[in-house]
Amino acid sequence: MGFFDLFIVALMPVLEVLVVTAVGLFLSLDRVDILGPESRHRLNNIVFYVLGPAILVSNLAETITFQSLVSLSVVFLWFMPVNILLTFIIGSALAWLLIKITGTPPHLQGLVIGCCSAGNLGNLLLIIIPAVCEESNGPFGDSFDCRVDGEAYASLSMAVGAIYIWSYVYNVMRVYAVKKTDTHVNDSTVSINIYGEAAETFSESFKETLLPSGAHEYPDPAEKPYSSGKILAWKETIQHIKWIAEKMNLKMIFSPPTIASIAGFVIGAVSPIRKTLIGDTAPLRFLDSSVSLLGKATIPCMTLVMGANLLQGFKRSEVGFSLIVGIIVVRYLFLPLLGIGVIRAAYHFGMVGSNSLYQFVLMLQYALPPAMTAGTISQLFNAGQGECSVVMLWTYAVASFFLTLWSTIYMWLLS
């Protein structure tokens, strides 16, 4: 396929995302007010507790078997968690450089790290990968097999990304938050959503699960390992790491997507359970069909809420222009370029196998816009909410061009 043909293939799913996002944005306008704060709150809870876990369970259970799990793990499937971890590490390193270059204020440094390290590993991959597979002139072979494998890769990406976001980004942004969050004000508007990366609201009871006692306040200066300039740099770093480890809220690792992912792997890999639930002759196949039906509603709901969230960016302008440009450069230039090098090196050393679709998904994980969950966490800690809205607005505004461009380049390299 020529470069232009690949560009058209890559453009179609991005346009789908743009259309649904625009609908969500329109529905959130004050004149329309269908996706107002209360509606987004309820829709987000449905996605978080029901629809998101449903799509993870159904996709993983239907595509993962014990034999495929063993063979794929030995060959290359194990590399996806490693690759996502590398995106977080590289993104954090680039964010640190950006902070130094732009002189980012301390209360926004956690936000910069979160936006640069965590990509939208949720709904975008679940839209883009199947849409690319369904194109008649797609580069990944049979459309049905491509879609089945692609949805499994995207679901695994979502599950692993959620674990990293809530175990790393959540705690990093919590460390850098300098404002005190009043837990008694606006309880109904504090938001957490990890699936489609669309920042919205959760109930106070779940908020208390996220924030352990004392987490709302910045630590005592005497406890702050980097407050003394007399300590050697390496000792300071060790102290900082120990302090972060002590403050981490490990409860967030075991959130609904994590539990759903484990359930999906168990159902798919344990043969007696799989034969009972999966397949045309399974006695309880109606349960799998019901869960799959719920899961199909995940993507449109997440994308609508994501579009509704972007409206906040039109109402905020506190963040500096250089910081926005810096985050765009990190996420859409340096990370995708480095991603090509990482995956090419992994292929050279036999870590990812020869499956071009799998390599495409791994590369695409470096070219995604920031996770909207970063905005959610900033709202939770009452630090940089307005700035985050602006960052999300502009990074997603230019994402259509860069996602199409990098998708085209990746397919061209792999074809």
Automatic annotation (TrEMBL):
Pfam families: Mem_trans. InterPro entries: Mem_transp_PIN-like, PILS1/3/4/5/7. One of its GO terms (biological process) is endoplasmic reticulum to cytosol auxin transport. GO terms for cellular component: endoplasmic reticulum membrane. It is found in: Endoplasmic reticulum membrane. Keywords: Auxin signaling pathway, Endoplasmic reticulum, Membrane, Transmembrane, Transmembrane helix, Transport. It is a multi-pass membrane protein. The chain crosses the membrane at residues 6-27, 47-70, 76-99, 111-132, 152-170, 252-273, 293-311, 323-345, 357-381, 393-413. It comes from the Eukaryota. Its main location: endoplasmic reticulum. Belongs to the auxin efflux carrier (TC 2.A.69.2) family. Involved in cellular auxin homeostasis by regulating auxin metabolism. Regulates intracellular auxin accumulation at the endoplasmic reticulum and thus auxin availability for nuclear auxin signaling. This is Uncharacterized protein. It comes from Rubroshorea leprosula.
